[in-house]
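Lecture 7, part B: from sequences to assemblies.

Below are the input chains for today's worked example.
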Amino acid sequence: MRHLKLIPSDTKIPFIKFRHIAVGVSILLIVASAVLTMMRGLNFGIDFEGGILLEVATDGPADIGGLRTRLGSLGLGEVQIQEFGEANDVLIRVQTPDEGGNDASQAVINKIKAALGEGVEYRRVEVVGPQVSGELIQSGVTAVILAIVLMLIYIWFRFEWQFSLGSVLALVHDVALTIGVFSFLQLDFSLQTIAAILTIIGYSMNDTVVVYDRIRENLRKYKRMDLGELVDLSINETLSRTVMTSGTTLLALFSLYIFGGEVLRDFTFAMIFGILVGTYSSIFIASPLLLYIGVKRDWSGTGDAKVQQAKG
Amino acid sequence: MLHFERWKIILVALVCFAGFAYSAPNFFPKDSLADMPAGLPDKQVNLGLDLRGGSYLLLEVDIDAVMKDRLQSLVGDIRKALRDEGIRYTGLGVKGDVATVRVTDAAQLDTAMQQIRDLSTLVNGGGFSTTPTRDIEVSNQGNLISVAVTDAARLSRQRSAMQQSIEIVRRRIDALGTTEPVIQQQGADRILVQVPGLKDPENLKNLVDQTAKLTFRLVNNSANAQQAMQAGSVPAGSEILYMQDNDQQPVLVERQVMVGGDHLTDAQPGFDSRTGEPVVNFQFDSTGSRLFGDVTRNNVNRPFAIVLDGKVISAPVIREPITGGQGQISGNFTVAEANNLAILLRAGALPAPLDILEERTVGPSLGADSVAAGEIASLIGFAAVIVFMALIYGFFGVLANVALIINVALIMGVLSLLQATLTLPGIAGIVLTIGMAVDANVLIYERIREELKAGKSVIAALEAGYSRALSTILDANITTLIAAIVLFQLGSGPVRGFAVTLAIGVVTSVFTAFTVNRVFVATWYQRRRPKTLNL
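Predicted structure of the full complex, as structure tokens:
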């Protein structure tokens, strides 16, 4: 029986040749993401901005215009209303009142409930006060930075600082582009997005480590080979695995995106995007960066190498 | 790599079997599990609030209010102490977070300071110190005495206010009769409340965010409330309060509390025997009964206000002395309101107001929809990955798929055993794990392919495939594990559930993809001894 092959066995794609273009394009995209995020901002969910969110199921298809006029006249400030997945499912979002604290938020919810009347079902009610949203922003940013720093340390410990730097730059690239696409599409940026970003960090690192492992192995094997050639060889040797794993992961994620329900959609989208970018970055960014940074060629006498051999 | 001792194979088989055994209860209806013979696994995965519906509340105890109360009562104590000693003073009151008083006669300053110092009590020192310290600190600038509450006292107040609040919130929620509510302290001044499966989450909020401080006070008949308010001349010792069911109607109530809610021993909802309207019947303890008897005896024909959290519930006129210590509160209640009030009164008053910082409520229908969507997405994702692996690696793909099925069973088994909470993002974590778990097998298989191509024999290629891939597999999975651990620290609720399944999935997938799969391949190789490998 012959098996399906996604990638022919003996690819000799000259990835390194594209490195200037790839790095150039990536820098451009990072800058674009940064500018976009600053100019257009992120569509923060109530996790990070505070606010009141109600998911409401109406009997028939929801009359969004009618809802807007009814709720707009309550004097609650800006009222956002959008369809959520189904025609009879509506998300209503308003700000928490500046003053009056908790009672005021509850009063707003009661006003909305009174305005909507009977015959609607409250599927979800979320209130995040300004204090909590401030803390969530802080812990979200801390978590992303902490994850990147831990990766830096781990790779430094397992490889060399050059690898560590290369992989972390690739991570920063992935995170920046993911944030950029959230700004571009104005997707809901919430705690779930941070979770997705951390997953992307883990996944992208995973991908990069596999290629780096092969580069290190080849550095020991081919002591005289030109570094560019060696990196190319390593990427090609692992390419089949890289594509396979991205493939199965994407299969699972697409299933989640399509069938997993509206609540998870932006979360899954972030991960799908991140895995595509992460796969790209471990091939086109993380490995070629080693050429810019330079790596130690002699791996034979180090303690690390001995440990590796003993294990193998 | 391909040689296994018999006991190792048995151990691996046992672990896999345990995975299936502990995940099995999840495939049976919950009711049927009660009849299971003792000793068999009967725990199901603990579904998060986002999957089964329920309320999550993050409450903050208003410690500043506690301290303000403390300063107010301190002012009262100082007034009494100075009066008793015949010391003249001016400007006694609270300024910021200290109580201040100016002694008129400098000669009496030392006595005054001593009197105030005598008011202090000992509290446990804060932090690691166990030596008792004073709860107030008295200092002076000339004749001006300032009294501050010490940090140790503040801490000890905060601690006891927290404990008391948690206890009272627990009593109130228990009265709802829900199953498995979680009520726990978070940080120094926060309480986390998670109540699954509520039909009316709104009612939960009504129950926890009321202080429920009940007082019985006389209505001041000497002036008309409306006029006193308009003239701005509220008689000393009285205050204007509003009716609970009508916030336009003022009542002039004396400040002095005749009987407090802390003397209640019971409160039950009921109906008035004459009008049939919902009421709350209450019972005082012996001190309360005596106080209540005295007040009602001495004030027949005066209205007696029942005040809850600064609002007058009702102010009935005392017809006759009530000596039995039993009474009735009526106030245009609905049945539900009477019920709630009875619960609140039975549970007692909170030492300080609670603020709701965060609320997340999921209705049962959304939870059920999420479970259904999660199940479908998992099954389809699972099927897609299995078909894909079989197409790419043939027989070896099937072996990897068996390992994957064991992996999912292990994840469910570990979740059930640890009683970890499965949330919607947690399901996403499982689906993601399914996609990523085959990575280890992909790494191994690709390596075997390479070794075969390099001209190695089948056994040598298999050996090299497993051994060379190991360090890569470990490195690759440790990075994901690091991300999951950071995520666990960050998140609460749903997001934390994602971190949990991701972390469990990383560990179990290394076990199934590397060890379980290797046992399969080794057994297969020893039976068949193939000369070539179709990989």
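Note for the exam: Residues 63-150 of chain B form a domain with the Gyrase A; domain 2 fold (CATH 3.30.1360). Keep this in mind when comparing with the next example.
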